[in-house]
Write a structure and sequence with these properties.
alpha+beta, Double Stranded RNA Binding Domain, three-stranded antiparallel sheet, about 40% helix
Amino acid sequence: MKAGDLLIDEGEIVENFVRASGPGGQNVNKVATAVELRFDARRSPSLPNDVAIKLIKLAGARATLDGVIVIFAQRFASQPRNREDARERLAALIVQAQHREKPRRPTRPTKASKTRRLDDKSRRGVIKALRGKAGTD
């Protein structure tokens, strides 16, 4: 399976097929169309450690305490479509975990902006000083 820049071995993904609720009519009661996909992110040799940690964090409630990500797909009435849906959702999670934020570099104010700020500040100070009581002459 391909997820972004990574290739994940098919042997690392475990799929169980179970009966689903939802669309399918009477077929739902007879055929196991829902897919429970399990992927052990913590022990996967395909994932770098930092990506695995971020993936488990992104998975939230879908991740077990052992670092296994469980995705349950039952949106469609057919098993192959649910299987594809579960794999796409796992791939999307992995791609999201691979994304790195660009670090912010702090900028400094320019000399002109500092001068403008100080000029405005002194003007405001003069205006406020004129608000005082009138002096006796």
